[in-house]
Amino acid sequence: MDLGIRGKRALVCASSKGLGLGCAQALAEAGVTLVMNARGAEALDAAAADIRARFGVEVVTVAADITSAEGQAQVLEAAGDLDILVTNAGGPPPGMWSDWSREDFIAALDANMLSPIALMQVALPGMMARNWGRVVNITSRSVKAPIPALGLSNSARAGLTGFVAGTARQVAAKGVTINNLLPGAHATDRTVTLDTNAAKAQGISFDEARAKSQAAIPAGRYGTAEEFGATCAFLCSQHAGYIVGQNILLDGGSVNATL
Ligand code: NAP
């Protein structure tokens, strides 16, 4: 299917690895010019070189912390006029509800709520002026079904979801859509960390922890970054202009709900 976005310009945050990289690759395959970001320059430059070689699109990289005001300013300056914005950052660490301090909450809010909001506040006016734009925020299935050990994530992502719900309806008439993608477990570095922690906590091996986690998913496996990226690219396509303010689960059926 031709996604109809060849030549558009996208910023994909936190995209040297994992789900962000999956989104960058799928957009590049659709002919989109990219600005990619991550903190570590080495993996970022390698990912960008691979995308240029495979898809022949222009890719600019900005090594910066997207959760800091300085990092956001650097990335946005390099990005210029944007048609597509994919927000993403690392997820907060797991822990116990009684242990988190005010500082822990502020850090989680900065990374997973206030940073994507700040990026949208800069990108949306230009998109609205040009009567076309797509924003996809990578959040988590924890928005629909809380993950107790990830209380910092549950809290921050709920805040972003509320912001998007209202804002998406304020910009839709200008041809701009904002939607959230909610990953369940995917085979990335993030789940290596989470499964390592689960193995330690339960006194079992990493492989046993992973097998147990996968067995609890109706699909019987973790998702892939490629599947995730393809969904993101579709949401950014010309075909998705009527999808507004939605929270789309990609979780192999993990959230056990009818709607
Ligand atoms: P990942 O494989 O660990 O990749 C994270 C990517 O983000 C890397 O490229 C990393 O590069 C970059 N990054 C992290 N913090 C950053 C920052 N402050 N500024 C700029 N770049 C940053 O993680 P993932 O699995 O793709 O997860 C992406 C998001 O989805 C996370 O918020 C995660 O919590 C959420 N999520 C993931 C899953 C899952 O199963 N994978 C499930 C639910 C939710 P650098 O380290 O070099 O910066």
Could you give a quick summary of the protein structure above?
This protein has 259 residues and is of the alpha/beta class.
Q: What's the helix count?
A: 8
Q: What are the secondary-structure elements, in order, as H or E?
A: EHEHEHEHEHEHHHE
**What is the rounded distance between the termini?**
28 Å
Bound molecules: NADP nicotinamide-adenine-dinucleotide phosphate
Under the CATH scheme, the architecture of the largest domain is 3-Layer(aba) Sandwich
Shape: globular
Strand content: 5-15%
CATH class of the largest domain: Alpha Beta
The residue fraction in helices comes out at: 40-55%
How many independent structural domains?
2
Overall pLDDT metric: 97
CATH superfamily of the largest domain: NAD(P)-binding Rossmann-like Domain
- Largest sheet report: 7 strands, parallel
In CATH, the topology of the largest domain is named: Rossmann fold
Give the low-pLDDT segments. Answer: none
Radius of gyration: 18 Å
Task: Find the structural class using helix and strand composition.
Answer: alpha/beta
For the largest sheet, list the strands in their spatial order: 3-2-1-4-5-6-7
Q: Give me the count of strands.
A: 7
Pfam families: adh_short_C2 (PF13561)
Family: Belongs to the short-chain dehydrogenases/reductases (SDR) family.
InterPro entries: NAD(P)-bd_dom_sf (IPR036291), SDR (IPR050259), SDR_fam (IPR002347)
Protein name: SDR family oxidoreductase
